[in-house]
Specification:
By secondary structure, the chain is α/β, with parallel strands linked by helices. The chain is built from twelve helices and 24 strands.
Length: about 550
C-alpha cells in the first residue's frame, strides 16, 4: 500500500512538472485576434499602424493573415478585428468564421461589402473624397489632404463619425456600429483616422479613459552643446517642477573631428545635475550620423541617400539591385547586409551605453535619430532597451512613412518595448508660426479621451522658446510623464540599469568597458600628477636644504 501511494504521488509530481502552464492556459491566451488581408508589401504599413492602435489597450493580441483563419478558433478570443489592407475576394471559411463569431467585432477599410451576413445593415455605394471629419461632441478637423473613403449607409446603425465630401457635396458616415459590430470606412489609417479609431477602441474594448499625459524632451544634446545654455534650461525646468527627458548623443563627429563626453567635462557636470533634478536620459543614437553629415543633422540607423537599411560601411559605394544579374545574388547581398546592420547597430548601442555609464549617466530609453530605423533595428534595440521614445517607422520600404499613436503603446513589431509617443513636433528655427502650429495640435489632441501631448525642443534656441512651449502645455490639465518613475530596463554586456518609483538600480563591474578604463587612467593621471609634482618639489627643496646645511658645517670645520 505504501509503495502504491509513493508511486501515485510520484506520477502526480511528474505530471505537474511536465505541464507547468496547464492551469494558466486561459490567462496566457491572447485576448485579441487581428486578421488582415493584403496584396502588396506596401500595405503592411496599415497592419503595423493597427498593431500600434491596438497596443495602446492590449498587448495580448495575435496577428494573422486571412489565409490562416483555419488555424485558429475565433471563440477563444474576446475581440476580433479585421483589416482589409488590400482588396481581394475573401474565402468562404473566413466569412463563415466571422459570421459565427459572437464577440465584439471591428472591420476596417476594404472588403466589408462581403460581410453580408455579419453586417446586413451596411451598404457600400462606391467611394468618396472627404476633406474634413466631424466627431460628435469632440472636435472637427480639416484634413491636410483629401482622403478616399467608402461612401456607405447604415440601416439603423449608430454613426459616431462623419466626413465632409469635397466641394460641400454632402456628408458620409465613416464609423458605424450595431450591437458591438463596428465598421470604419476610411481607406488608410494615418491620422487623424488612427486617432479616431483609438477613440472608438475605448468603447470597443470597454476600457477606462486614461486622460492626458504630457512630456517634454530636450533634443540633440552632444559634446559640443553649450553647457551654459543647457544649465539655464535645466534650472528653469527644476524651478517649474517639471520632469523631462534629455536626448543625449555621446559622440560628436564632423569632417573627421570626433569629440566625446570625456572632452566636455562641463557638459557632463550639467547632465549629472539634470539627471539629479528631474531629467531622464534617453540615448539618441551614438553619433547621430552615418556618412559625412554633422552629428545631429544626419541619420545613423538608416541609409537616407538610398532609402534603405544600413547594408554597407559608409565609405563604400552603395550597391543596387541593378548591380546583380540574378535575384539570388541580390538576396545574398541583402542577407549579408542584414548581418552587417546587426553588428553596426549592436556596436553603436554598446558604445553609447558604455560611454554614458562611465560618466555616471544612466539612459532609460532609446530614440533613433530622425525616428528612422529598420524592422530588424527595432528587434536589436529591444534586446537592450525596454522603452522607446518618439515615432515609428512602419516598413523597410522607406523611412518617410512614419506613424505616431495618441497614447503609449506596445505594438508587436517593437518586440516588447513600450513606445512613449511624440505627438506635437518641435519649434523650428526661423519659423514664426511654430508656436501657433504647436498650439493648434495641442487643441486638437487635448479633446481626445486619452492622449499624449508631447514635444521636443532644441536647447540652442535658448530659454525663451522653451518657456513658451512649457506655458502652452501647462494650460492643459494632464499629468507630466516622469520616465524614471516607470519600469525601465537597459542592459548591455555586464551593465544593467533598471528604474522604478524614481530610483535607479545600476549593476556593473568597477570598470565596465575600455572607454571607462581609459577614462579612469586619464582621471588618475590628472589627480596623481599634481601630487607627484608637489612631492618632487618638496623632495628637491629638502635635498637642497640638506646640502646647504652640509656645506655650512664643512665650512665651519675648516
Amino acid at each position: 500500500m505504501r509503495k502504491v501511494l509513493i508511486m501515485s504521488l510520484s506520477l502526480i509530481i511528474v505530471f505537474v512538472l511536465n505541464f507547468p502552464n496547464a492551469s494558466f492556459a486561459e490567462e496566457d491566451a491572447d485576448s485579441v485576434l487581428i486578421v488582415y488581408s493584403n496584396t502588396k508589401e506596401d500595405e503592411l504599413k496599415d497592419v503595423r499602424i493597427l498593431e500600434t492602435l491596438v497596443g495602446q489597450f492590449k498587448d495580448d493580441y495575435r496577428v494573422i493573415e486571412d489565409e490562416d483563419i483555419a488555424q485558429v478558433d475565433l471563440s477563444e478570443y474576446e475581440y476580433v478585428i479585421y483589416l482589409g489592407a488590400g482588396e481581394k475576394v475573401l474565402s468562404e471559411n473566413l466569412l463563415e468564421a466571422f459570421k459565427d463569431y459572437k464577440g465584439p467585432f471591428y472591420a476596417i477599410n476594404h472588403n466589408a461589402e462581403q460581410f453580408k451576413e455579419k453586417m446586413p445593415w451596411l451598404n457600400i455605394n462606391g467611394e468618396a473624397l472627404v476633406n474634413k471629419v466631424e466627431v460628435p461632441d469632440n472636435n472637427e478637423q480639416n484634413l491636410a489632404e483629401d482622403r478616399i473613403v467608402y461612401d456607405v449607409t447604415g440601416n439603423g446603425a449608430s454613426v459616431s463619425l462623419v466626413g465632409n465630401k469635397v466641394n460641400d457635396s454632402g456628408l458620409v458616415p465613416l464609423l458605424l456600429n450595431v450591437d458591438n459590430v463596428y465598421y470604419f470606412a476610411g481607406q488608410n489609417l494615418y491620422n487623424p483616422f488612427g486617432e479616431i479609431i483609438t477613440q472608438s477602441f475605448i468603447n470597443f474594448f470597454g476600457e477606462e479613459r486614461k486622460g492626458i499625459t504630457k512630456y517634454l524632451r530636450l533634443e540633440d544634446v552632444h559634446p559640443m552643446v553649450d553647457p551654459g545654455l543647457l544649465m539655464d534650461q535645466a534650472k528653469y525646468l527644476k524651478e517649474m517642477n517639471i520632469p523631462y527627458m534629455v536626448a543625449v548623443i555621446p559622440e560628436y563627429t564632423n569632417k573627421g573631428k570626433k569629440v566625446h563626453l570625456a572632452d566636455s567635462p562641463k557638459l557632463v557636470k550639467t547632465l549629472k545635475y539634470m539627471q539629479d533634478n528631474g531629467a531622464s536620459i534617453v540615448m539618441h543614437g551614438y553619433k547621430h550620423q552615418y556618412r559625412s553629415s554633422e552629428t545631429g543633422e544626419g541619420f545613423e540607423f538608416w541609409d537616407a541617400e538610398n532609402d534603405r537599411p544600413i547594408y554597407q560601411p559608409s565609405d563604400e559605394k552603395a550597391k543596387q539591385r541593378s548591380d546583380f544579374t540574378t535575384d539570388a545574388e541580390y538576396e545574398a547581398f541583402v542577407a549579408e547586409g542584414e548581418e552587417y546592420e546587426r553588428a553596426y547597430i549592436e556596436n553603436a548601442i554598446e558604445s553609447g551605453i558604455e560611454e554614458l555609464v562611465a560618466h555616471d549617466l544612466y539612459p532609460v530609453a532609446f530614440e533613433a535619430p530622425h525616428y528612422a530605423i529598420s524592422q530588424q533595428g527595432y528587434k536589436i534595440v529591444s534586446e537592450h532597451f525596454s522603452s522607446y521614445v518618439g515615432q515609428l517607422q512602419l516598413t523597410d520600404l522607406t523611412w518617410q512613412e512614419e506613424y505616431v499613436p495618441l497614447y503609449e503603446s506596445r505594438p508587436e513589431f517593437l518586440h516588447g518595448m513600450t513606445l512613449y509617443p511624440e505627438t506635437l513636433g518641435y519649434i523650428e528655427q526661423g519659423d514664426g508660426k511654430a508656436i501657433q502650429k504647436m498650439q493648434d495640435k495641442i487643441e486638437i489632441r487635448s479633446k481626445y479621451n486619452q492622449s499624449y501631448l508631447s514635444a521636443f525642443y532644441h536647447p540652442y534656441l535658448g530659454i525663451g522658446g522653451l518657456k513658451e512651449v512649457v506655458t502652452n502645455l501647462n494650460e492643459v490639465d494632464g499629468t507630466w510623464l516622469d520616465l524614471k518613475q516607470r519600469d525601465n530596463l537597459v542592459q548591455v554586456n555586464d551593465i544593467r540599469i533598471s528604474t522604478g518609483g524614481g530610483e535607479y538600480h545600476v549593476e556593473k563591474p568597477f570598470l565596465a568597458s575600455d572607454y571607462e578604463r581609459n577614462l579612469f587612467i586619464k582621471k588618475t593621471v590628472i589627480w596623481v600628477m599634481p601630487v607627484l609634482l608637489l612631492v618632487l618639489t618638496v623632495a628637491i627643496f629638502l635635498i637642497r636644504k640638506r646640502r646647504k646645511k652640509s656645506l655650512v658645517q664643512v665650512g665651519s670645520a675648516s
